[in-house]
Each structure stands twice: as C-alpha cells, then as structure tokens.
Amino acid sequence: MAPPSAPPPTVTRWRPRRCWPSSAGRCSARPGPPPSSARCAGPTSTRSSLRPAAERTRAARPAATRRRPALWAEALLVVAFLVAYESVQRLAGDDVAAAFAHARALLGVEQALGLAPEQVLDRAVAASPVLSLLSAAWYSALHYTVTPAVLALAYWRLPALYRAVRNAFFATTAAALAGYFLLPTAPPRLLAGYVDVVSATAGTGWWSAAPPVGTSGVDQLAAMPSMHVGWSLWCALVLLLVVRRRWLRTVVLLHPAVTVLVVLGTGNHWLLDVVAGAALTALSWTVLVRCSAADGTAAAARAGDGRDLVREPR
Question: Could you give the CA distance from residue 208 to residue 125 in angstroms, rounded to a whole number?
Fold first, then answer.
C-alpha cells in the first residue's frame, strides 16, 4: 500500500498592503480595497500639503524679500546716494549767524536741564595726547569705513531683510540732510571755550584741519543731528541681527557708545545732536525694518511654517 501523498503546498498570492485613514486620523494598513468611508471621504492630502514647509514658506514670501538686488546695481545705488548726500550737505551751511544762534540755544537748553557734558569731555580729551589722537582717528576713519562694511555684511547675511535695512539707512540720512537745511547748527568746537581736537591733531594723523567757517563747498554747520551717532547705531542694530555670542553683542553695542563719547569729546556735536541722531535711526529702524520682519513672519505662519524669516546664523 502506497503511503499517502503530502498535500500540495498552499500558494499565497502576495497583495500589497494599502494605507487607509482610520477614524483616529492615523494610517491603518490593511489589504484589500478601501473602506466605504475612505472612498467617500475623498483625498486626504493635497499637493500643497505634500510640499516641504520651507518651500511653502518661500512661496508665501514676497518676491522682494526672497532675493537680494543685483550686486552691481546695489553698489551703484549706494555710491550714488552717498555722493549726493555729501554734495547736498556742502550746500547747507550758508547762514552762519543762525547756526551760532541755534548752537547757543541748544547749549542753553542743556544747561537748563543740567545736561551739558561737552566742555568737560572736550577738555579731558584735549588734555591727553593719546586720547586726542585716538578720538580724532575714530571720528575721521570709522564713519565712512565701518558703515559701508556693515551694509555689505547685511547684503550677504540678511537677504530677506536687506532692502528694509538699506532703506532705514537711506531714510535716516535723508532726514538728517533735511535737518541741516532747516536747523543749521554750529558745533561746540566753533564756540569760545572749546578745543577742536581733530584740527589740533591734524599734524600727527592723516586727516586735515577744518577749513574756516564759510569756506565755499564746506559745511561745518551740520551738527544737528549727529550722523556719526546715527550711523553707528544703525551699524549696531544690523550687527545684532547677525552675531549670536553674548560677548560679541556687547562689543557691537560699544561702537555707538564710544562714538557718542568721541563726538562730544572732540567738540563736534552737542548732546542734543546725539539724541536727535539716535532718535532718527531708531524711528527709521522701527518703521522699516521691524515692520518688514513682522510682515514676513506673518507670511511664513500663513504658509504653515512658524519659524521666523530672520534667524540668526549659527
């Protein structure tokens, strides 16, 4: 008698496992056709939801904030603006009598408030050859070297905010230019009792002494507001968006603080000039930069990405 034959092997046909949404919102993997609830519910994802969050954020941002302007065009714009600023500023100092009257009025206001540190600082700086040389070098060199360098850094590191940062710089400078025409003011160094530190150290440094007041093409009556302080504060605000280390941020804040002491100690500005320059920069920054950043953050949130558009680089 032959032994019973083994049963034929069972062949299981492979069927792909499909993922259908469950009532809890999770993916329920089971073979076969989708349940009727899933068939009637329609597609559970759209093309936009499958895109990465960063891509949706970029799509929601305005085109002006996603791309930097062309480098050559931006360089021409900045150079043209600064040349125009210098050229127009030289035409502002015509009314010498009014400029000296405004200077004495500012000094009177400061003395009435008990805030008139210009003469004390000026004499302290003038009494020290080292302080005089360092202060004159700071005043003569950093104004037109640090500011363009920070603007270039903003172009490189802050593409989303560059236009707003640059426009804040332009707005501050243009407002100051209007102030030179509307309120010409003589600096302290032109009044009796003050030392012109920059001119006194001109023989040692690379800078030249100031020409006489009223010289054609030279404006020495543009003390109000102080753009040395305004630009230095703008530089600090830009750098605070870039640097993260605490000690570097402290160094950044020292730049406008030292500039305030320098412009007062060299006899180039009154304290109220300093306040006006800082106020112009703060106002322009608040209106143009902070509002632009807030608008960009809202656009990113609407696109499904809660991260800020401006993030400090690591």
Answer: 19
Q: According to the model, what pLDDT value does residue 203 have?
A: 81
Q: H or E stretch including 81?
A: helix 71-89
CATH of the domain at 135: 1.20.144
Query: How far, in Å, CA of 308 to CA of 296, rounded?
Result: 8
Q: State the residue for tokens 């002006």.
A: 64
Helices 162-182 and 227-242: angle between axes, nearest 10 degrees: 170
What CA–CA distance (Å, rounded) separates 234 from 216?
Answer: 31
For residue 303, pLDDT over 90 is answered with no
| Amino acid 78: pLDDT | 94
Contacts for 242 with CB less than 8 Å, ≥ 6 apart: 153, 154, 157, 158, 312, 313
pLDDT in tens, 77-98: 999 999 999 888 888 767 889 9
State the Cα–Cα distance between residues 41 and 252, nearest whole angstrom.
58
| pTM: predicted TM-score of the whole model, two decimal places | 0.73
Q: Is the pLDDT of residue 270 over 80?
A: yes
The verdict on residue 193 lying in a domain is yes
The DSSP code for 43 is -
| 69 is a domain residue | no
pLDDT of residue 140 exceeding 80: yes
DSSP label at 205? Answer: S
Which residue range is the domain that position 147 belongs to?
A: 91-302
Q: How many CA atoms lie within 13 A of 5 on its CB side?
A: 3
- Could you tell me if 261 and 292 are in contact, meaning their C-beta atoms sit under 8 angstroms apart? no
What's the Cα-to-Cα distance from 159 to each of 67, 76, 153, 263, rounded to whole Å?
6, 18, 10, 32
**How confident is the model at residue 86, as a pLDDT?**
86
Residue 272 within any structural domain of the chain: yes
Pairing of β 27-30 and β 18-21 = antiparallel
8 domain-assigned: no
Counted domains in the chain: 1
Beta bridge partners of 222: 185
Looking at 127-242, list the stretches that DSSP marks H as alpha helix, in order from N- to C-terminal side.
129-141, 146-157, 162-182, 197-200, 227-242
